[in-house]
Amino acid sequence: xxKRSLGSSEVQITPILMGTWQAGKKMWAGIDDSESIRxxxxxxxxxxxxxxxxxxxxxxxxxxxxxxxxxxxxxRLEYASKVFANHLKYNQVIEACNRSLKNLQTDYLDLYQxxxxxGSFGSESVPIEETISALNKLKEDGKIRAIGVxxxxxxxxxxxxxxxxxxxxxxxxxxxxxxxxxxxxxxCIEHNISILAYSxxxxxxLTGKFSPGHKFEEGDHRSANVLFQGENFKRAQxxxxxxxPIASKHSCTLAQxxxxxxxxxxxxxxxxxxxxxxxxxxxxxxxxxxxxxxxxQEIDRIGRQVTDRLDDNPVMWDW
Length: 319
Fold this sequence. Notes:
Distance between the termini: 37 Å
Number of helices: 10
Number of domains: 1
CATH topology: TIM Barrel
Mean pLDDT: 95
CATH class: Alpha Beta
Largest sheet: 8 strands, parallel, barrel
Shape: globular
Strand content: 5-15%
CATH superfamily: NADP-dependent oxidoreductase domain
Order of helices and strands: EEEHEHEHEHEHEHEHHEHH
Strand order of the largest sheet: 3-4-5-6-7-8-9-10
Low-confidence stretches: none
Radius of gyration: 18 Å
Structural class: alpha/beta
Helix content: 25-40%
């Protein structure tokens, strides 16, 4: 899989990244550690060398699972982790990074990201200058190679950029969720900031595997995802029907088509999670799907039947 530059840093990443939120188990149902390990390993073997995790995914459990899966081939990979909103004071950032390094059994992270802006989820408000100062120190010390932010809007991204070089933004972004296109995307293009899209398959909705009336297992956070609710879900089903002929033309799945469309957008790379080795291998194949300008425009039109009817809430979950 041909790699791309991460912002203006020296880090090279794959356009499809392995997402490991589910490997942390918390807020997911039916996750098996051994299967997660096999899925991560399969992703790497299929060409996905960039792995995204976070300290809050199962309170470090996801990071430890990543280490169990691929620590023996660390030099071939790019690790991206995140510090949560409750650890944004200077010393807390340093300590959180050290914990992540220990969990991942490595002495450096290729990318370290602020997971949510200060104040999120009732966390204490910390000046962004203080947090970025700690990240700059970690970079100077060689513990991280690049700095990123996640769930920041354009204004927050601009403010963070005043105090350090930001090489990536990780927002929710998919064919069915495009809030950032009118906000942060133009800024990212102008300043060469890579977009690492999470929930790139709209939490599985774009796979086409969820039929009307689907009931999630208890504890599965997707039951609170607004895309799976009411008229939004009905419109999504209609859009998926219209996407199927395009996928058939390319002999690919709906998921692969959706990922191929996403990584064709400016500055954009796609984080895709996988519970099984088969899912990881399928995600990797999306990088081989080449869409024409006309097909990209048609997919765009189909997707807007869903996104144009959503409200202005930037958060995907009705928590």
